[in-house]
Structure formats: structure tokens, C-alpha cells
Amino acid sequence: MEQSLDRTIALLSRTPAALDALLRDLPEEWTRGSEGGNTWSAFDVVGHLIDGERVDWMPRAKMVLQFGESRTFEPFDREQHLSQTAGKSLEQLLDEFARLRAENLEELRSLNLRQEDLERRGRHPTFGVVTLSQLLATWADHDLTHLHQISRILAHQYREAVGPWSRFLGVLQCQGHSSM
Questions:
Q1: How many separate domains does the chain show?
Q2: Is 100 helix (H, G, I), strand (E, B) or coil?
Q3: 158 in a structural domain
């Protein structure tokens, strides 16, 4: 499937509610637990998503439209959120993420992007030249990656409790990215 702005927005608009339904009011044993070692908790993932809303997706989209390939995106600090979430509750983070996502999608819609806009090119610090369409498709897949990650993190909390069934539970076998 090719990236479609309407389909991308349809998916992006659902992520805050999906996270809210899954995580709000869960005991901290679920939301602050990780997969061990240097991995994130569900709380950390929501903080990371908030940081992306602030400094990644829309700032980069606007940069592509304004500067094209002449300016390189600022590198994204994947750990920056760790200091910004200190002292906050998961409920505060879920509310903040929902608000920021709604604002970003409203701004994205207001750009009235045409196909030629989606084909505009920007410069990523690692990948080099990328299109606005690729950036927007990545935003949607980034959400799905972290929804998958959160389900894995939550399942990991019961990895011992499920006993022998663990070998039939794909979520416990998956080795996706969770490390900081």
C-alpha cells in the first residue's frame, strides 16, 4: 500500500485512544515494568511518543516544506524524554500525548498537502534524502511499532506466570526493539 495522507491521519488519530484504553488506570507493576536490562517500560514509551510529537514529526515535515534538502533534520535524541517525564503520572502523559497529537494532526490537515508536496524531499542525518511521504508513513509505522512494543512489555510481566504456555505465545518470543 502506498502512503495516503488520509489513511495515515486515520491511523495516527487512533493511537492516543488505543494507548489510553490499554494503559490508563493499570497498576504501576504493569506500566513501569520493562523487559529487563536497559529496556523501556510502557510509561517510557509514552514519554518517547510525546517527545516525537514535540520535536520530530511535524517539525521535520515543516522543514521539508520550507527548506527541502538544503537543511538536515536535527538528530532525534531517543532518551531525551527520560528527563522530561520525571515526576509525572502515566495519566498526565496520556493526556499530554492526546493533546499534542490532536494539535499536530490539526496542523498537518491545515497544510492542505498536495501530491507534489508529498514528493518533496528533505535530508535525514542518517538516511540522507527522504520524501515527505516517507516521513509521514514512518510516523504511522512508528506508532504501530510502539503499540507492538507496549504489548510485548506488558506480556513480559507474566512471562513466568504463564508457565509452559509461553512457548505458544508469540508475544513472548518476539525480540523487537525495546532498548534505550
A1: 1
A2: helix
A3: yes
Q: Quick one: cell of 55?
A: 520535536
Query: What angle (nearest 5°) sits at the alpha carbon of residue 132, between those of residues 126 and 135?
Result: 55
Determine, yes or no, domain membership for 179.
Answer: no
Instruction: Return the CATH number at 54.
Output: 1.20.120.450
Query: Is residue 180, in this structure, part of any structural domain at all?
Result: no
Are the C-beta atoms of residues 172 and 162 closer than 8 Å to each other? yes
Q: Which amino acid is at 36?
A: G
Q: Is the pLDDT of residue 178 over 80?
A: no
Domain of residue 21 covers 5-173
Whether the Cβ atoms of residue 131 and residue 78 lie closer than 8 Å to each other: no
Would 156 be classed as within a structural domain?
yes
Model pLDDT for residues 89-147, shown as the tens digit of each residue? 999 999 999 999 999 999 999 999 999 999 999 999 999 999 999 999 999 999 999 99
| Helix%, strand%, coil% for the chain, nearest 5 | 65, 5, 30
Q: What is the pLDDT at residue 71?
A: 95
Q: How far apart are CA 56 and CA 45, in angstroms?
A: 15
Handedness of CA 165, 169, 172, 175 (dihedral sign): positive
